[in-house]
Specification:
GMP Synthetase, Chain A, domain 3, elongated, alpha+beta, 2 strands, two-stranded antiparallel ribbon
Length: 86
C-alpha cells in the first residue's frame, strides 16, 4: 500500500505490486549481519514485483519506500510483547 500511494503521488506508471514472503527459522550463528549470536532467529525472505513501465531508479526508490513502511519498520525493530488476560 505504501509503495502504491507513493507511486501514485509521484505520477509514476505503477500498475500493480505483488509481495511474496517466506518465513523460516535459522540458527543465529548462520546470520552474519545479525546482532544475536545464539539461538534461533526468524528469517523472512521478501520478494517484491512491481508491474509497470518504471525506470530502474523509480523501481529502486519504490523498494526503499516499501522498506520504510510501518509494517516493515515494526518487523525489523526490537519488539516487546506483553500478553494480559482480560
Amino acid at each position: 500500500m505504501t509503495i502504491a500511494l507513493y507511486a501514485r503521488r509521484k505520477g509514476w506508471p505503477l500498475r500493480d505490486v505483488t509481495v511474496h514472503l517466506r518465513h523460516s527459522r535459522i540458527h543465529a550463528e548462520d546470520c552474519e549481519a545479525c546482532e544475536t549470536g545464539q539461538g534461533m532467529l526468524d528469517h523472512i525472505e521478501l520478494q517484491v514485483a512491481l508491474d509497470g513501465e518504471l525506470l530502474d531508479e523509480q523501481r529502486n526508490r519504490l523498494l526503499e519506500i516499501g522498506n520504510m513502511c510501518p509494517v516493515h519498520r515494526t518487523l525489523t525493530s526490537e519488539i516487546d510483547i506483553r500478553s494480559v488476560l482480560m
